[in-house]
Amino acid sequence: MPRRAEPVEPFGRPRRERIAAFRLGLSAESRAAILLVAKGYRITARRWKTPFGEIDIVARRRRALVFVEVKARERADDAAEAVTERAKRRIIAAAELWLAHHPDDVHCDIRFDVILVIPGRIPRHVTNAFDASR
Question: What domains can you pick out in the chain, each with its CATH number?
Answer without folding.
Answer: 16-130 (3.40.1350.10)
